[in-house]
Task: structure prediction
Amino acid sequence: MFCEGEKFIIRTAEGNDAPLYTCPNQMGFAGEKGAYTLRTILGDEPKQPFEGRAEDSVNFHYVHITYLPEGTVVGEHTHETNEQFYLVIQGEAEITLCGQTFPAKPYTIAVIRPGGSHGIKNVGKGELIYICCELEPARKYPYETEAAK
Result:
């Protein structure tokens, strides 16, 4: 279910209506390996299916749940102007941040600032599940700029 108001958006797990799709992991990032599945729960990128309106999200490019099979790697890469975070939900990962590798278990969060390189690898048994969120540096929503006038 997807509900919205002027100052909020909420998406619930009812019906699991957020679409699943396969990412072939062919971006050319160093070390990438294997394909994985994403469930976009908020987003504005056409390549990521989303059953909502792109304009509902001013700061977020996307929020998705990523399902990485054993041994799969999202290779190290950089977003020059966006911030991103990984929040591990299930499994064991190695997260690479600016060339340094860190072990990650459930409830580990990695924040990647603009220009920081990052990647993630499933190093455990079974599926690695994590939330990935990408956003622009803060911009104002229309109702905030209207109130300031």
Observations:
- The CA atoms of residues 104 and 124 lie 10 Å apart.
